[in-house]
Design a protein that fits this description.
Shape: globular
Helix content: 40-55%
Strand order of the largest sheet: 1-2
Family: Belongs to the short-chain dehydrogenases/reductases (SDR) family.
Number of strands: 2
Number of helices: 4
Largest sheet: 2 strands, parallel
Protein name: RDH11 dehydrogenase
InterPro entries: NAD(P)-bd_dom_sf, SDR_fam
Order of helices and strands: HEHEHH
GO molecular function: oxidoreductase activity
Keywords: Oxidoreductase
Structural class: mainly alpha
Distance between the termini: 29 Å
Strand content: 5-15%
Radius of gyration: 14 Å
């Protein structure tokens, strides 16, 4: 939704293979179908990613590096605000992990 969906739509309009990295399979798949219909680009795909989980970030990055021949642009857009204080299963504060640590780790893993 929001800025991320707009950026993904613009990239798809430019005929880019576009990977939507979403927490929710249902919402992500709906966005994929909407973007494909709006742009005519069938190369819009969904991959699950929760930047609040470093294990999820590692799995996502590993799959992208294994499955994709190249990566030209990375847009780190996910974020949360206003959540109650919570600690992840990895012992990290949830908001800080989702907004900073997860995207930082993702970027560094994808740089190779």
């Amino acid at each position: 939704a929001g800025i991320g969906k707009c950026v993904a739509t613009d990239l798809a309009r430019r005929n880019a293979r576009t990977i939507l990295a979403c927490r929710s399979r249902e919402r992500g798949q709906a966005a994929v179908e909407e973007i494909r219909a709006a742009t005519g680009n069938p190369a819009v795909v969904l991959r699950l990613l929760d930047t609040g989980s470093l294990a999820s970030v590692r799995a996502f990055a590993s799959a992208v590096l294994r499955e994709e021949s190249r990566l030209d642009v990375l847009v780190n857009n996910a974020g949360v605000t206003g959540l109650p204080f919570a600690i992840t299963s990895e012992g990290l504060e949830q908001t800080f992990t989702t907004n900073y640590l997860g995207p930082f780790l993702l970027t560094n893993l994808l740089l190779g």
